[in-house]
Inverse folding.
């Protein structure tokens, strides 16, 4: 029998959060009658390696690489954050953060300084901030920032780089930001948000095509019903969730539209 794994690395912001994800996934899988083994995959191991595994059963994956098809996966369902800005949708945004004690008031005040980003296949850490900066791009094509520090890999590394003064501004997945603020408020006390990007499709739980279609359908239905189950409430509080929305490949097309706009403008990286 093929073994399939589950993993919540993208939003396992602290051990307590990962434990909550593991318990929630166990409930969803049990209701769907799909056997899954939770397998930790801590940072900084590359997520693209995880996403390309043939034994994915329920693993969180960013919508931009789903749309880019950097791995052959089947999207199942995406979280609906219990946060006002999500508007009750399976959507998220990026917060553009600076040190709390900095003098920056507007995003434009950071121009001429140093910006950071995660990896080129990240929506929240690359594609979203790049698109957000497009309207500010200079007519002569000169960069907005004196340095663009890339390949920071994780949201936590962006946060740490801002706090340490290695960059002046960087993007944080706003749902990740809300979770780390819940579990490690002492860390986020040192930053503040200048602006946030427009909403985009929320990262989703995906499976390998090797997972039988009937199992995918049962998992999708289990996620859709999760918010009505008595076990959901404590996990909703722990993970700031309102529920889950079933998703397909087509739901992530907006991320490619943002990519095409930046490429057409000759703006390959946030810079």
């Amino acid at each position: 029998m093929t073994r399939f794994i589950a993993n919540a690395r993208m939003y396992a912001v602290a051990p307590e959060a990962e434990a909550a994800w593991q318990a929630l996934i166990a409930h969803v899988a049990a209701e769907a009658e799909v056997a899954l083994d939770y397998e930790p995959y801590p940072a900084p191991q590359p997520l693209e390696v995880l996403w390309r595994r043939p034994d994915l059963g329920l693993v969180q994956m960013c919508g931009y690489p789903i749309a880019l098809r950097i791995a052959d996966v089947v999207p199942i369902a995406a979280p609906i954050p219990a946060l006002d800005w999500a508007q009750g949708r399976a959507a998220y945004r990026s917060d553009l953060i600076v040190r709390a004690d900095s003098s920056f008031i507007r995003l434009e005040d950071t121009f001429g300084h140093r910006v950071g980003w995660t990896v080129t296949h990240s929506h929240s850490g690359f594609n979203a901030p790049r698109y957000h900066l497009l309207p500010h791009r200079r007519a002569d094509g000169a960069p907005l920032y004196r340095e663009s520090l890339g390949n920071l890999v994780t949201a936590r590394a962006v946060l740490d780089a801002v706090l340490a003064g290695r960059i002046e501004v960087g993007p944080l997945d706003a749902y990740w930001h809300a979770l780390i603020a819940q579990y490690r408020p002492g860390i986020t006390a040192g930053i503040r948000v200048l602006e946030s990007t427009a909403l985009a499709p929320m990262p989703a739980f995906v499976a390998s095509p090797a997972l039988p279609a009937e199992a995918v359908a049962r998992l999708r239905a289990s996620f859709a019903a999760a918010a009505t189950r008595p076990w959901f409430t404590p996990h909703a509080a722990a993970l700031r969730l309102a529920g889950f929305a079933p998703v397909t490949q087509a739901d992530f097309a907006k991320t490619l539209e943002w990519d095409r706009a930046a490429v057409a403008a000759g703006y390959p990286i946030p810079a």
